[in-house]
Write a structure and sequence with these properties.
The protein has 189 residues and is of the alpha/beta class. It is built from 5 helices and 7 strands; from the N terminus they run βαβββαβββααα. The protein has 3 domains: 95 residues, NAD(P)-binding Rossmann-like Domain (Rossmann fold), CATH 3.40.50; 34 residues; 28 residues, no CATH class.
């Protein structure tokens, strides 16, 4: 069983071990979340040059995980992946070893982003393709404008919180902000 949460990594030091296409995908996702990413690998795919991450071109060392808030191992070496996992676990650092759940302290769900709205779909590591299929289904149903709606509702919520003291009326008003909203794409979209 996994405990779902959203981890704030903006400005935080994160590590990706690996230099191939999967490591690149993970580094991109961390950068989109604002993380300060370092990637360690003996070699990097050319696409890594276009990504604003610190690249360290050498084999992984246990000390590489020091000071990181999150580590992802994305190599094709079971030995390296195991070493990354062990180094993180000794230091209490959350670690994900791509496609090796028994070496992970967390898994990465399939993610749908619409501005500040983030929907994570997980099967608890049982079937990542199912999670991806469910995410794609949600993408087809939910409008692209959902992010704009969330920002408008956020502004309204902040105004209500400033204007009214805690009360049942305030709670009802806040809940009423979303009552009756149509959250599916229109047929013309």
């Amino acid at each position: 069983m996994y405990y779902p949460l959203m981890l704030k990594v903006k400005g935080e030091p994160c590590l990706v071990v690996g230099g191939g296409s999967v490591a690149l995908q993970k580094a991109r996702a961390l950068r989109r979340s604002g993380a300060q990413v370092t990637a360690v690998s003996p070699s990097f795919s050319p696409a890594f040059r276009r990504l604003p991450v610190r690249r360290v071109k050498r084999p992984f060392r246990k000390a590489d995980v020091s000071g990181r808030v999150l580590v992802i191992a994305a190599t094709d070496s079971p030995r390296v992946n195991g070493a990354v996992s062990a180094a993180c676990r000794r230091r209490g650092i959350p670690v994900n070893v791509v496609d090796v759940p028994e070496l992970c302290s967390f898994i990465v769900p399939s993610i749908l982003r619409r501005g500040p709205v983030v929907i994570a779909v997980s099967t608890g590591g049982q079937s990542p393709p199912l999670a991806k299929a469910l995410r794609r289904r949600l993408e087809a149903v939910l409008p692209r404008s959902l992010g704009k709606l969330a920002r408008r509702l956020g502004a309204a919520r902040r105004n209500i919180l400033r204007a009214l003291p805690p009360s049942l009326a305030r709670t009802r008003l806040l809940k009423g902000l979303v009552r009756g909203l149509k959250l599916e794409k229109s047929r013309s979209s």
